[in-house]
């Protein structure tokens, strides 16, 4: 079902639910534990993305033909991109108190992925889900339902802002997942 232009704009006006102070603290506390294993967690997230959503590899020429998760794990390029993803999340977490900084970071990420990399915006939604899965599985002692809810709100806001950037730059979807 296709949306009409006005509907998109109305959805955009609502925006994501803001994080409460306690939710920001839960995210910061759990992220401190996650970020201690930054490289391994980032690699786990990208491997899960590529294995569960193989179409996501189309944006990474160096991984398109790689099927073996162990081969992916050994890839220096994958590790480098995993580190970039984790550093971007770290920047968001460090600036949860600064909405302008968050929007600025997400605009940069959104523009780069829309204009330079031509990544379909749905992959941000998929990646957010993968991040939640990996955190929930690998950090079970820290990701309670309440903490997972806070992370979900943050990642929903990430997706909302990034898709807003896609709309600003006049993104036209070129393929389906």
Automatic annotation (TrEMBL):
Compartment(s) where it occurs, according to its Swiss-Prot or TrEMBL record: Cytoplasm; Nucleus
Catalytic EC class: oxidoreductase
Entry annotated with the keyword Membrane: no
InterPro entries with a match to the protein in the record: Globin, Globin-like_sf, Globin/Proto, Globin_lamprey/hagfish
Single Gene Ontology MF annotation: oxygen carrier activity
Source species, domain of life: Eukaryota
Catalysed reaction, written as an equation: 2 superoxide + 2 H(+) = H2O2 + O2; H2O2 + AH2 = A + 2 H2O; Fe(II)-heme b-[protein] + nitric oxide + O2 = Fe(III)-heme b-[protein] + nitrate; Fe(III)-heme b-[protein] + nitric oxide + H2O = Fe(II)-heme b-[protein] + nitrite + 2 H(+)
Coiled coil: none
Keywords, comma-separated and alphabetical: Cytoplasm, Heme, Iron, Metal-binding, Nucleus, Oxidoreductase, Oxygen transport, Transport
Function, as annotated: Probable multifunctional globin with a hexacoordinated heme iron required for the catalysis of various reactions depending on redox condition of the cell as well as oxygen availability. Has a nitric oxide dioxygenase (NOD) activity and is most probably involved in cell-mediated and oxygen-dependent nitric oxide consumption. Under normoxic conditions functions as a nitric oxide dioxygenase (NOD) but under hypoxic conditions the globin may switch its function to that of a nitrite (NO2) reductase (NiR), generating nitric oxide.
Subunit structure: Monomeric.
Official protein name in the record: superoxide dismutase
């Amino acid at each position: 079902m296709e949306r009409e232009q006005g509907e998109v704009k109305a959805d955009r006006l609502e925006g994501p639910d803001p994080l409460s102070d306690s939710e920001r603290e839960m995210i910061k506390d759990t992220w401190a534990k996650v970020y201690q294993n930054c490289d391994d967690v980032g690699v786990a997230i990208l491997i899960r993305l590529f294995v569960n959503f193989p179409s996501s590899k189309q944006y990474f020429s160096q991984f398109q033909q790689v099927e073996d998760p162990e081969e992916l794990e050994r890839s220096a390029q994958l590790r480098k991109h995993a580190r970039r993803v984790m550093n971007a999340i770290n920047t968001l977490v460090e600036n949860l108190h600064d909405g302008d900084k968050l929007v600025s970071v997400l605009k940069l990420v959104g523009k780069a992925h829309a204009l330079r990399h031509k990544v379909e915006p749905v992959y941000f939604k998929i990646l957010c889900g993968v991040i939640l899965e990996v955190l929930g599985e690998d950090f079970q002692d820290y990701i309670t339902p309440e903490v997972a809810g806070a992370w979900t709100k943050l990642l929903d806001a990430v997706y909302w802002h990034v898709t807003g950037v896609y709309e600003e730059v006049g993104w036209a979807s070129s393929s389906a997942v």
